[in-house]
Design goal:
Radius of gyration: 22 Å
Helix content: 25-40%
Distance between the termini: 11 Å
Strand order of the largest sheet: 7-6-15-16-17-14-18
Structural class: alpha/beta
Low-confidence stretches: none
CATH topology of the largest domain: Polyamine Oxidase, Chain A, domain 2
Bound molecules: flavin-adenine dinucleotide
CATH architecture of the largest domain: Alpha-Beta Complex
Strand content: 25-35%
């Protein structure tokens, strides 16, 4: 089959790798000048690092299997993570269940309750039982008002902005599942990170596609998917000089968000209506290369809605500094609504806004610590689903013959991640093979 894949993110590359290996003629069109999409990396000095922090969990079986298949699994290393929460002007260690029981931020009886709630959620296999509730309403009923107001409400508001009370409960359930399953026998969370970043996975997928006679075209934006008699006919592709070319294909796999796909081809109701129910938030990620560490934790969630950011991810508190010429690498992360004014700020303006809050976390923090920086805004970073999404979830195979869609909004109830991108690429490959 002559297959077009729209997008060279992990989904597009994994699908391209699998389909080209099976003998299909694969062409990937990527609007950016690089592959990897949300998991893409950048070079800083002599090292490579993700534009947005990335790690893998023990439950990420599909991507771990892909590393093996590509013969690069020896570069995967497991590290003990350290997690904390900033609340009530203090950093609280929340790495393990024992830390939770010691969390004097809330009364002891509440800590026990919280512990039991998390165990119950972990043991619950039928997440559909939680489907018609939001995380906000479910948690507000299961924990005391104080715990909810100090911890969960600010965390939900910080992560989801105006959607804070609309997030379906299965999202929270899936977070508990992955985080609890990634604990070792000492109940310590362990996370996986490839030596020298995800760039080697990306380049190995590219290499495999090319070895199997596939092609990847950069700076090529797909502007239209054309069908004839309800069957895929061709696509229009625009290059960097706005020159459009029409190319024939038997199959088109779209890995772009629904509202982009909706503009490329005619999607009829009820699918169009379902697609319009998925919203997306953008991410603003600042990388600071520092000569000092800010905290002792890899992951610091901020449960204080006065803060203009959502969390600090101190990469070098997970991965040894020796990989990064002994620098400290800090990601300052934020998820914002698409019309949020923070998206208009440049690095300098954002840093000025963040500075007083970085000092609240570590009063010694100084701009003199900053040796270098990178700054990224990522569209469609987090899909936002309505409650009972499984009843309207869009299938991978669309009603137009030869058209498939594999994007982050097809990952549910799990939160999107590179592992699930690989898993849906596998599913699409099977659908095409069995067709
Ligand atoms: C801040 C942040 C942190 C994350 N942390 C983790 C983590 O720790 N672990 C983890 O596993 N995952 C993490 N993820 C999620 C993970 O990166 C994504 O789920 C995954 O990379 C999505 O891959 P994708 O190929 O489906 O989509 P994308 O990466 O979005 O790829 C889609 C591609 O399509 C291209 N495109 C769009 N429109 C067109 C067009 N018209 N024509 C041609 N090309 C087009 C885009 O340029 C893009 O390259 C994180 C994501 C973010 C934003």
């Amino acid at each position: 089959m002559n297959i077009c894949i729209i997008g060279a993110g992990i989904t597009g590359l994994a699908a391209g790798h699998k389909l080209s290996k099976l003998g299909h003629k694969v062409s990937i069109f990527e609007s950016a000048s690089f592959s990897g999409g949300q998991a893409s990396t950048i070079k800083i000095d002599n090292f490579e690092i993700e534009k947005a922090y990335h790690h893998l969990f023990a439950t990420d079986k599909s991507i771990l299997k892909l590393y093996k298949e590509l013969g690069i699994s020896d570069e995967l290393t497991w590290y003990k993570s350290s997690v904390a929460t900033y609340a009530e002007n203090k950093i609280w260690k929340t790495s393990s269940p024992v830390d939770l029981l010691k969390l004097s931020l809330i009364p002891f009886s509440e800590r026990v309750k919280l512990f039991i709630v998390s165990i119950r959620l972990k043991l619950l296999t039928n997440w559909k039982k939680l489907e018609n509730e939001t995380a906000y309403s479910w948690l507000s009923k299961k924990v005391s008002n104080k715990t909810f107001e100090i911890i969960f409400k600010p965390l939900l508001k910080g992560k989801f902005g105006r959607y804070y009370d609309k997030i379906p409960m299965p999202w929270f359930w899936s977070k508990v599942q992955t985080r609890v399953s990634s604990r070792n026998y000492k109940l310590q969370e362990v996370l996986c990170y490839p030596n020298n970043s995800f760039s080697n996975l990306i380049s190995n997928l590219e290499r495999s596609i090319k070895e199997n006679k596939g092609q990847i075209f950069f700076n090529k934006k797909v502007t239209k998917i054309i069908s004839k008699s309800n069957k895929i006919d061709s696509i229009n592709v625009q290059d960097a000089d706005s020159v459009t070319e029409n190319i024939k294909f038997d199959i088109v796999i779209s890995t772009v968000p629904y509202n982009v796909l909706d503009k490329l081809t005619h999607i009829s109701d009820p699918l169009k209506d379902s697609m319009s129910k998925v919203d997306y938030m953008s991410a603003i990620v600042m990388i600071l290369i520092l000569n000092e560490k800010v905290t002792n934790y890899y992951w610091l969630s901020i449960a204080d809605n006065e803060f203009p950011f959502l969390g600090l991810i101190e990469h070098t508190n997970l991965i040894p500094k020796s990989f990064y010429a002994d620098n400290n690498i800090l990601y300052i992360t934020n998820y914002v609504e698409n019309d949020n004014s923070l998206l208009e700020l440049d690095y300098k303006e954002l840093l000025d806004l963040y500075l007083p809050y970085l000092k609240k976390i570590n009063n010694k923090f100084s701009t003199n610590w900053i040796k270098d920086y990178r700054f990224n805004k990522i569209n469609y970073a987090q899909p936002i689903f309505p409650v009972n999404y499984s009843s309207i979830k869009i299938p991978l195979k669309l009603p137009l013959q030869g058209l498939y869609s594999a994007n982050t909004a097809q990952i549910y109830p799990e939160d999107r991640g590179t592992n699930y991108s690989v898993a849906i690429a596998e599913k699409i490959t099977k659908l095409i093979q069995n067709n």
